[in-house]
Amino acid sequence: MNVRKTNIYDLDLDQLGVFLSDMQEPAYRARQIWQGLYVHNWQAANEFTNLPKDLRQRLDQTIDFQPLIPEEKLSSSDRQTEKILFRLTDGKAIETVLMAYEERRTLCISTQAGCAMGCVFCATGQMGFRRHLTSGEIVAQVMYYARQLKDRGEKVTNVVMMGMGEPFHNYDSTLAAIDRLNHKYGYNFGARRFTISTVGLVPMIERFTKEKRQINLAISLHAADDELRSSMLPVNRKYPIDVLLKACKAYVETTGRRITFEWALIRDVNDSPETARKLAGRLSGLLCHVNVIPLNPTQKYPGQATTRERAEAFRGVLEKAGIPCTVRIRRGIDIQAGCGQLAEGTQNPSDINFSK
Ligand code: SAH
Ligand code: SF4
Q1: Which strands, in side-by-side order, build the sheet including 288-294?
Q2: CB distance 162 to 339 below 8 Å
Q3: For a Cys-Cys bond, which of 42, 130, 172, 267 suits 47, CB 3.0-4.6 Å?
């Protein structure tokens, strides 16, 4: 019988203790393994030189120290963006993107294989839902790059949940992963360096608000009226803009934290100065920031990216209304670095120029 090994990153420190006591090992071993994983970034049983050799061998038989198999790696032509397609133990695929900008090393990680939300312009939405990731599969994406960067003398500085999937549809595993990475005896990655991006699942925004965490929150808005938003983001039929913005307002009031709105600028769809004015009206009085980014075109959606001039004009309208706005450049466009574009491409490999 082929018994699947335990993904080591699925265990929190207490669970690791239980796992080891089941192996008749003393409690302090859990702390040693935790240190090896999250302080030294060891990723194979034989690297755990703080453990006796026979224990390393026994662990190797039951534990998976590298639950993600890097299958394809792409680098953008300017080498600033790198994207990996990881194969999960059940054969499903996810993507992780590393973006280097000055001193920043931002990781864009996945929380699900595929996505159930069906946003029409999104490659992940177009492929549909495969499954939730476990907390350990979310953690493992960060620890993979922690190790890669450590070997180059660098560090992960920010983690954004903007890869494949809807983090608030997989709320418990996403938050458990953040807690594990935040653990003070482990990786100790500050809560303020995480950003969760959500399509707008209102009950989960409310739950998150009550938890009063330091994690940053971004909302994918993309439209200022319900008709347009529902046509692009089906979830809007369930949680229309008024309801969503009410939840955002409660979040800002309860936590005192600024909220970010994401806006993909699609030519002649949501990029006009009138739309910017409508948006400014809806956001007025809210402690927020708007990130606009030109659409990353995908195979199954006919929309095109806006122009630089129109993006600047859009920003100008918002700024004039007192709403801070940043125009993001599209990073890694030559490596399909947009959400879900690589995993989708693997079903059609001839579309992609891999540089392995
Ligand atoms: N499910 C979450 C997080 C993953 S998507 C969410 O929707 O917020 C991360 C961001 O990428 C979202 O703002 C999403 O709207 C945006 N996005 C998806 N496809 C895109 C595309 N083709 N071009 C530009 N932005 C896109
Ligand atoms: Fe899912 Fe986000 Fe893509 Fe919408 S934009 S389909 S919520 S990953």
Answers
A1: 69-75, 81-87, 93-101, 104-108, 158-161, 194-198, 216-220, 259-265, 288-294, 325-327
A2: yes
A3: 42
Name every residue whose Cβ is closer than 8 Å to that of residue 49 and which is 6 or more positions away in sequence. none
For residue range 166-223, list pLDDT tens digits in order.
999 999 999 999 999 999 999 999 999 999 999 999 999 999 999 999 999 999 999 9
Instruction: Kindly report whether the global pTM for this prediction surpasses the value 0.85.
Output: yes
Rounded Cα distance, 70 and 68, in Å: 6
Tokens of 2: 């082929």
187 CB less than 6 Å from ligand 1?
no
Helix or strand run (H / E) with residue 264: strand 259-265
Q: Is 95 in the pocket of ligand 1 (CB under 6 A)?
A: no
DSSP string, 29-59: HHHHHHHHHHTS---SGGG-TTS-HHHHHHH
Q: In residues, how long is the chain?
A: 356
The alpha carbon of 23 and the centre of ligand 1 are apart by a number of angstroms equal to: 44
> What's the gap in Å between 226 CA and the centre of ligand 1?
18
Collect all residues with Cβ–Cβ distance below 8 Å to 102 and sequence separation of at least 6.
Answer: none
